[in-house]
Amino acid sequence: MSYDDIDAILTDAQKIPCTFDLEVPGLGFLDGNPGDEIKAGTRVDLPLWLAEMLSIGARLGTSRLVTLDLPSALSTRVMNALKADPRTVDLRSLAPHFYRLGVRILELFEEEEMVDILIETFRKRAAEIADHAHNPRGPLVEEVDFLRGLDETERQLFRVAHDSAKEVRVWAGEVKKK
Amino acid sequence: MAFPLPQGITPSEIAFLSEMELVTVVPRQRLEILELLGVSPSGGSTELLQPPVRASVPLWLALLLKRQRRINIVPPFWLHPESLSFILQIETEHRDYSDAFSPPPRLPGQQSVGDRTASDKLKPRRTVDGQPYFPTPPFLPQNIALAPAEATGPGREAPSLPYHWLEVGSMLLEAASDDLVDPNQTRRLLKDLREVRTAKMRKGIDVLDTAAMAGGGVALTGVGAMEIGEMRGLVTGIVENLRYFSGFVLGKIGVSKEQARREQLAEEGNKDYDDTQDYGDSMEL
Fold first, then answer.
1. Which terminal CB of chain B, N or C, has fewer other CB atoms within 10 Å?
2. In terms of DSSP H, where are the helices of chain A?
3. Which residues belong to any copy of the DNA replication complex GINS protein PSF3 N-terminal domain (chain A) (predicted)?
């Protein structure tokens, strides 16, 4: 998670819903009224890095500019779906960097249960990814759907697993290289 | 992540390392001693090849000479179809090994099962500058053929798969199939063994979360070099991410759960952990 980790930067660019607590002059462009002030109580989606900065007053004890809400990708509805069956949820459509977003959000919110759900989800899906990477069964419908729903972390995992399995097969002479 | 080279070592590199394994050969021509660097545990040079006396040479030299039809390779004991089907039976049917790999060959100095008295004390070897070390595969004689008396005698050990079993087996099947007993059967058995063991490896993934967080582990006693190499990327990827989620996140929320679990484990004491079992298994991962 270094400074120029492209995935970390993309994670910070994902938007999360915020509510302004104060009236701020000149910030109206965020709400589509350039040059105007932004009213207290306006709800806008801001990138994570900006939202974090604006809400930082809350931690310092001064009055804060915005209140953060949970993004829809980590809403209770999604968490319930993950609890029911992690394998059928399309994480990619929720957020391309789902797990990293979860980690960032958990830095800002206290959500004990979400940690366990995320870990359990990753574990179950990782086992599934390993199966798919080692036994490519051809373009079955449910397999394609599952692989399309992988988030970036899981995609990297799939790629690593698939490549190493393939390299061993190439070495053993079972498949031709490339 | 941006670094293009893959993590760990590639299959061809693993195969290259396993070419240092000593195999037994029957020479057809005389070959003088070759002065080389560190060929075998006993020293730097190869043995004198004098037909028809058996000799041990590194696999790479044996393959080279075999291709020139100057020697015949005596297959290692474990590569016989009977040995392989015995091991396969352990892997598939034995109750104790339904989730674990079949036991690896006994290491020098390690006590054999049921024989606690007669163990040869393991002495470390010395490097050139005097540092002590214990040899590991491929510098252990795990692939040499047994003398006829050893192979049939009452005190012989059950066959077991050495660390480089898949590599040595495949290379011998490829280059010296006419020296093996029933090469087709051998090839089939190696394939079966590989599938059985891959399935066990896959089962281990389900319990990786305990390995990542609760200080637990996945028993890999008896695993082969190629099998580790194949799973390294996946397993380290999963564990790394689980650690990232749990340790990093929980570190912020009060006392981390990892620490709580560790304390709980420390109270219970590590009763189940048997340190003689995992000797030499954690390498390279």
1. N
2. 6-12, 48-54, 57-60, 76-84, 91-94, 98-108, 112-134, 141-148, 152-171
3. 5-55
**CB contacts < 8 Å between A and B, how many?**
92
Cβ neighbours of B10 (radius 10 Å): 17
Instruction: Please determine, for the modelled complex, whether the ipTM score is greater than 0.90.
Output: no
pLDDT at A72 over 60: yes
Q: Does A115 touch chain B (CB under 8 A)?
A: yes
Question: Which residue ranges form the domains of chain B, and what is each CATH number?
Answer: 11-74 (3.40.5.50), 77-103+130-204 (no CATH), 205-268 (no CATH)
SS3 of B60-72: the string is HHHHHHHHCCCEE
Cβ–Cβ below 8 Å for A119 and B242: yes
Q: Which residue among B226, B245, B253 sits closest to A119, beta carbon to beta carbon?
A: B245
What is the structure's pLDDT at B52? 82
Res B122: pLDDT? 66
Determine the pLDDT at residue B92.
85
Query: CB distance A164–B230 less than 8 Å?
Result: yes
A102 in Cβ contact with A9 (< 8 Å): no
pLDDT over 60 at A1, yes or no? no
How far, in Å, CA of B16 to CA of B138, rounded? 11
